[in-house]
Amino acid sequence: EAPLVESGGALVQPGGSLRLSCAVSGFTLDFSWVTWVRQAPGKGLEWVANMKRDGTESHYIDSVKGRFAIFRDNAKNSTFLRMSGLRVEDAAMYFCTRAVVLPGGRVYFDPWGQGIRVAVSS
Amino acid sequence: EIVLTQSPATLSLSPGDRATLSCRASQSIRGYLAWYQKKVDQSPRLLIFDGSSRATDIPARFSGSGSGTDFTLTISSLEPEDFAVYYCQRGTTFGGGTKLEI
Questions:
Q1: Can you name the residues that pair with B65 across neighbouring β-strands?
Q2: Helix or strand or coil: residue B50?
Q3: Contact A9, A117 (CB under 8 A)
Q4: Per the CB < 8 Å rule, is A107 touching B38?
């Protein structure tokens, strides 16, 4: 079984909303930062948002601030990305991943979900 | 904000060749760099962390080196399955990627 499985992707019109889900198995989210990374068609990887393991901190790339919200349900071992005001440029494959945070500010991403596609078009 | 610049953008090699990929940081990041492999329709795969430590189950032909601002990912002898796009990462920043093609 894959350790992270995303769902909730769809085709939406500009201005629309979506909620992506990421179900985690094989490890507990309680001790992990969670992160969403996206890859637009033909582009590279782009970090989108992350949330601290206790949910007290979250951070976003500037282009999604005020429109996206990351949250988590540790009881369900899941993380979610609520997206509103979607733009054409938000169209991408969205991946959830665990951020491994080590002393000294070292951050690495492992493992990763298989990704879920979000399309934004009228 | 740190910027990571990868070169070359595309690297054309053959199975059995040695591949050398570069990642340059806009300021010193000590040894704190990771490398990922990304194939089409697959999720990214962590290869190297802390500049030179191989992740779990990564073959020994993959090695990382460097510190400060200049880092290198070396694949000693390319296998057919190694042709993919490779990204370096530090914190929330990814490099632009190097496409390794046959």
A1: B72
A2: coil
A3: yes
A4: no
Please state, in angstroms and rounded to a whole number, the distance separating the CA atoms of residues B65 and A26: 31
B19-25 and B34-38 as β-strands: parallel, antiparallel, unpaired? unpaired
SS3 sequence of chain A: CCCEEEECCCEECCCCCEEEEEEECCCCHHHCEEEEEEECCCCCEEEEEEECCCCCCEEECHHHCCCEEEEEEHHHCEEEEEECCCCHHHCEEEEEEEEEEECCCEEEEEEECCCEEEEECC
Residues of chain B in contact with residue A65, where contact means CB-CB under 8 angstroms, are none
Distances from the Cα of B22 to the Cα of B38, B42, B78, B89, angstroms: 16, 23, 16, 12
What is the per-residue pLDDT across B20-78, written as a single tens digit (0 to 9) for each?
Answer: 999 999 998 888 899 999 999 999 999 999 999 999 999 999 999 999 999 999 999 99
Cis peptide before B44 (omega within 30 of 0): no
Which positions ≥6 away from B1 have C-beta within 8 Å? B93
CB B12 within 8 A of CB B21: no
Q: Which pair of tokens denotes residue A112? A: 């990763």
The number of residues in chain B equals 102
Chain centroid offset of residue A59 CA: 11
Q: How far is B34 from chain A (nearest CA, A)?
A: 7
DSSP letter at B40 equals: T
Q: What is the pLDDT of residues A25-40, one digit of tens each?
A: 888 877 788 999 999 9
Contact A45 B45 (CB under 8 A): no
